[in-house]
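User: Could you walk me through two proteins back to back? I'd like the raw sequence and the structure tokens for each, with a short line separating them so I can tell where one ends and the next begins.

Assistant: Of course. Protein one, sequence then structure:
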Amino acid sequence: MIEDKNPQRTSIDQLGEFGLIEHLTKHFESSHTSTIKGIGDDAAVVDFGTRKAVISTDLLIEGVHFDLAYMPLKHLGYKAVVVNLSDICAMNAKPTQITVSVAVSNRFPLEALEELYEGIARAAKEYKIDVIGGDTTSSQKGMIISITALGEADENKLVYRNGAKTTDLLVVSGDIGAAYMGLQVLEREKQVFQVNPNSQPDLDAYTYLIERQLKPEARTDIRTLLHALEIKPTAMIDVSDGISSEIMHLCKQSNVGCNLYEDKLPLDPQFISVCEEFNIDSTTIAINGGEDYELLFTVAMSDFDKIKGNPNFTIIGHMTEPSEGIHLVTRANTKIPLKARGWNAFEN
């Protein structure tokens, strides 16, 4: 499906490990005063002074987390950064640095890694973060990407998963479910291509969904928006594995229950249309799909007037006593126990 427009192939063996690192990272520059030492030593040095450092890491495996049949390497590099920055945002912190480690098999030439790092560099520029180190090695099969993200925040601004109270409102940014449906469209077109390699997919009707899957964005703006509204969430998590799974994480760590309202879920019109096309239930996909990288958080009931009607946020439920359990309240006003049917990295 992806046409190779650059037939040139340079063997990575010609550069060696350190030559490869220098080649791929020579254009990265540091812009944060907290970056004392970046790429080029045994370790990076970051000085946050009186502020708290926030660190998160993620692993992306070819064939498990991404399929290069329809995932361009530039998009993969960009997305690999975004999914890590999203974790920093979920702490109500500001992302500042990343390290990038890549393992590849010998089927990847230098040009392929240049494309991957072009996407990484674009994300670093977009989000104003520094790339300060990493590692490269060989892989027996496919590509493996590991990115560690660092961020900073004042101690009194940090938000954890365990602070939700029984009367808090449950809020989500943006819309949900679109990324999963984008994946379904791409998988369908891949199957068509495998049967007929001469077919050309027409994806104009799915642009938003595909963009949400191939080029998601980290909600670095939410911290600023909430600060302007004078709201500090009581608990927060990013929507990577599906909103049902994330709600259960918040409830477990905060020791609360939850009522999630079906009719309050923020769904994009294109998402609803394509769910109908695929003959699948939009609510099921919306709460279990994952990879939206929106932020799910709780706020005190007293903040209702500050957040209601804000186009960036949707109040989708409220927390309850733990004895009441965790439920989806349907449009018919029926309570259904909520189960975590989202992404599980260890499921076959």
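----
Protein two, same layout:
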Amino acid sequence: MQRHVAILGAGPIGLDAALACADAGWPFTVYEAADTVAAHLRAWGHVRLFTPWDLNVSHRMRARLPDTPTGDGCPTGAELATRLLDPVAALPALEGRIRYRTRVAAIARTGLLKHEQIGTGTRATAPFTLLLDTPDGEAIAEADLVLDCTGTYSHPNTLGPGGIPAPGERALADRITRTLPNTEESDRWAGTVLLVGAGKSAQTAARDLAGLPGTRVEWVVRKPAPDWGAVPDDTLPGRQHLVDTSRALADGANDRVAVHTGAYIQALSPESDRIRVALATEGGPHEISCDHVVALTGYTGDASLYRQLQVHECYATGAPMNVSAALLGSAGGDCLTQPAVGIDALRNPEPHFFILGAKSYGRLNTFLLRTGYQQIDQFVAAYADAPRLLSTGT
């Protein structure tokens, strides 16, 4: 049986990896848990990116879709999905290669446990076994090389101190919004919204919710003196605008927005059709009764997929160790200045297994699509002379 390259996830990086495999003549299959490509992008489709079209389209996509928009205009998530990624998925080179509604539940080396054959050729040549959840039930697939491009957006962080769930959070999980709210549905957010987080997603939500006349925002920020991720002489106007707006809200520019800095969630409890939230603040305990809770405290990838593989994770970021070391050692936190870490940093102790895209950055929030496309370039270059491996597993 001819084995394939397994690509997990049909987002921008997974689709670019598929094009790279098609260009190289390597057999491949893309496994996508949703019923469409770019499911994560569509989940925040109403939000406009900071980065322009030219930073969000790979050279492989551009070569096959020359009419894709160019220039400094910044697309929304929905525009990126419908004007770029849907046409990519419809290309003849990808026909029949994407298996929708098929989630990879776990990955292992066929016949080997995690601790066996460490660093040996035996382990390197054993195929991967993928456990699949499909519309028809569980199934098994094999591959010689696996690219995990599953992203992070479906695995949000929790609200409690130190990153664990706050008491009551799990019981109220179905009443907590963990994605960017769409404020075009203004009635949906009437009343008091408790917003938690200080990153760009939370800043976007604060800006948009503050514009709704029927909404009051109680914004909880962990740091006592947040810098809002300001970048000196920022060249991305949309990002700078968010910083300016957040500073203004923290300074009291909108009387329907209260910003609680140096605060964190202690507990949540139901209060009839509302939620009571206990806060720890610099001034002492504080309670808020709210109609909605929006938790935007970041996202991390699902590491359980490769629990049985030999993956060396950074103890601080959760990213692959070599990637994390390269990024943490670079100067500055601007996504536009992050280095291309190189193929050696992308490799794992598990041969032929790569974590690419936003998931490769772990808890670091400086990933750009451009970086993911560079990762695909590095992967292709490293395997350019290995067609026999990819087609026969030897």
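Residues 206 and 217 are 7 Å apart (CA to CA).

Let me know if you want the two compared in more detail.
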